[in-house]
Amino acid sequence: MNITVVLCTYNRCRSLATTLESVAGSTVPPSDDWEVLVVDNNSPDQTRDVVEDFCRRYPRRFRYLFEPQQGLSHARNAGIREARGDVLAFIDDDVTVASTWLQHLTAPLRNGNCGGAGGRILPEWTSPPPDWLPIKEPYALAPFAVFDPGLEAGPLGEPPFGANMAFQKKVFARYGGFRADLGRCGANLISNEDTEFGNRLLRAGEMLRYEPLAVVYHPVTKDRLRKNYLLKWWFGKGRADIREFGTPGSSYFLGGVPLYLFRNLAGRSLRWMLELDRRRRFHRKVKVWGKLGEIVECYQGARAAKKIRLL
């Protein structure tokens, strides 16, 4: 089996070096040929120097690719085009991987019957979680890209996350690449490009498999444990959901926004303001920000559509 690990990066040369060091220690069956393709998406730091150092230390194992068009989806699609492998594995530029990660993640794709696979993404806390964050609630860990369906391998009924997923290269030729209107771009927190692609495969009847032994560790840094960051993330998630699934149907609209979204916003805002428990209060607040993101995206989408009609 020929494998390409596609690792897209932007301005994270320090964490990137740690990630590449962990990937370099991966163990795979001797019969497998594998490479790591690092896609630099316009990084202004020392990213290229870091990658070229690994290229010198591990000849023919690491490759460097520069993608000038900003955006994670553009970088991933460039990696897909340039990959030499028949199986493509994806990770983020700030994770560390277990030594057997790549072997376990790609094992289900060996016979070609499975379209894709996903592994566990576990949080690596760099500081204690704040007491207002209910980390035992599944929603609370979403901004940290945690994906942990359990310890039992089996079919996936939900899409894997981009920090730990693999696909047959042929599925991209069949179903297209990652959507450019989704995915991180600079400071923009709009995402869903990874889960949208996985959902596309599931709707088409492709088999996806969960491999709990394919483990990566994702750091939860202090800057991501701030309320402002989490509120911006949920606002971006609301916008991304509208981009992925479209404006909800309704009989009545205001400015291109279904009226019932305003009613939902009002109800959620009231519950947030009346809640006294710190954890439940923040839980209700992020729901308000998510709904605001949906409303903003509906409004902007309607304005863009109107401009197109007027051309």
Descriptive tags:
single chain, Spore Coat Polysaccharide Biosynthesis Protein SpsA, Chain A, two-stranded antiparallel sheet, 10 helices, 311 residues, alpha/beta
Quick structural overview:
With 311 residues, this protein is of the alpha/beta class.
What features would you describe in this structure?
With 311 residues, the chain is α/β, with parallel strands linked by helices. It has two domains: 223 residues, Spore Coat Polysaccharide Biosynthesis Protein SpsA, Chain A (Alpha-Beta Complex), CATH 3.90.550.10; 84 residues. 42% of the residues lie in helices and 20% in strands. Strand 10 and strand 11 form a beta hairpin. The radius of gyration is 20 Å and the shape is globular.
Please describe the topology of this protein.
Blueprint: E1 2-9, H1 13-24, E2 33-40, H2 47-57, E3 62-66, H3 72-82, E4 87-91, E5 96-97, H4 101-106, E6 116-125, H5 138-141, E7 154-155, E8 164-168, H6 169-175, H7 193-203, E9 208-220, H8 227-245, E10 253-254, E11 257-258, H9 259-274, H10 278-310
Parallel strand pairs: 1-2, 1-4, 2-3, 6-9
Antiparallel strand pairs: 4-8, 5-9, 6-8, 7-9, 10-11
Helix pairs in contact: 1-2, 8-10, 9-10
